[in-house]
């Protein structure tokens, strides 16, 4: 897909590259203060959170280790079902660690509430969530999310790691995908 075609598939931008960087800079400072002196582990959820993890990490005033999980939430197209399967588990044991789950987006919340429960059962010292985006109007379960970058409307968005059919992840802004692309 070349850049011109991509442009035509987008309806409106919700967060620009610059807004994302500014917000992640703010969140990174809050995160760092919160975990001062603690054994922090950043856990990213593949693949959407790749960009958030990379930029959040570089905004942190110090260094913290990362690990990754990949899950598939059964369901096709643009909806998640809440039935989750682990495709790739963490590399290491998280017993006693302060886990911060780093996510791209909370939509229904079903996937993340499953992940949180799963990680919490492994005896970490704590589990918190940071998400770049959240769709308050789409929530099906309540999730206690400590850090949220931006609340956005209930629309299917792409860019900054978020895909549709593995495309559009490389966009630097987050924008709504035109429904003609998937309907
Ligand atoms: P949830 O379980 O909260 O409904 O969503 C789980 C996953 O679905 C998210 O982590 C994300 O990968 C994907 N997802 C949810 N909403 C969107 C969206 O608007 N755009 C894209 N590209 N993916 C989404
Ligand atoms: Mg995700
Ligand atoms: Mg996806």
Automatic annotation (TrEMBL):
Q: Which Pfam families match?
A: Pribosyltran
Pathway it acts in? Purine metabolism; IMP biosynthesis via salvage pathway; IMP from hypoxanthine: step 1/1; Purine metabolism; GMP biosynthesis via salvage pathway; GMP from guanine: step 1/1
Which Gene Ontology MF annotations are present?
Answer: guanine phosphoribosyltransferase activity; hypoxanthine phosphoribosyltransferase activity; magnesium ion binding; nucleotide binding
- Give the UniProt keywords, A-Z: Cytoplasm, Glycosyltransferase, Magnesium, Metal-binding, Nucleotide-binding, Purine salvage, Transferase
The EC category is: transferase
Biological process annotations from GO: GMP salvage; guanine salvage; hypoxanthine metabolic process; IMP salvage; purine ribonucleoside salvage
Q: Which coenzymes or cofactors are required?
A: Mg(2+)
- Give a GO cellular-component term: cytosol
Q: Where is the Phosphoribosyltransferase domain?
A: 19-164
Q: Where in the cell is it found?
A: Cytoplasm
Give the catalytic activity.
GMP + diphosphate = guanine + 5-phospho-alpha-D-ribose 1-diphosphate; IMP + diphosphate = hypoxanthine + 5-phospho-alpha-D-ribose 1-diphosphate
Instruction: Give the family, as the similarity comment puts it.
Output: Belongs to the purine/pyrimidine phosphoribosyltransferase family.
Please state what the protein is called.
Hypoxanthine phosphoribosyltransferase
Which species is listed as the source?
Marihabitans asiaticum
């Amino acid at each position: 897909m070349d850049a011109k075609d991509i442009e035509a598939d987008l309806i409106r931008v919700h967060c620009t590259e610059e807004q994302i960087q500014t917000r992640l800079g703010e969140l990174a400072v809050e995160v760092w203060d919160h975990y001062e002196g603690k054994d922090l582990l950043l856990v990213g959820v593949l693949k959407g959170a790749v960009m958030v993890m990379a930029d959040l990490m570089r905004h942190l005033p110090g260094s913290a280790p990362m690990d990754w999980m990949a899950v598939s939430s059964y369901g096709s197209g643009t909806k998640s079902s809440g039935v989750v399967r682990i495709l790739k588990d963490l590399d290491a044991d998280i017993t006693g660690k302060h886990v911060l789950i780093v996510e791209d987006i909370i939509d229904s919340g079903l996937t993340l509430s499953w992940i949180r429960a799963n990680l919490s059962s492994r005896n970490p010292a704590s589990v918190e969530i940071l998400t770049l985006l959240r769709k308050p109007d789409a929530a099906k379960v309540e999730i206690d999310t400590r850090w949220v970058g931006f609340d956005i409307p209930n629309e299917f968005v792409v860019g900054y790691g978020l895909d549709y059919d593995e495309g559009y992840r490389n966009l630097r802004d987050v924008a709504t995908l035109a429904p003609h692309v998937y309907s």
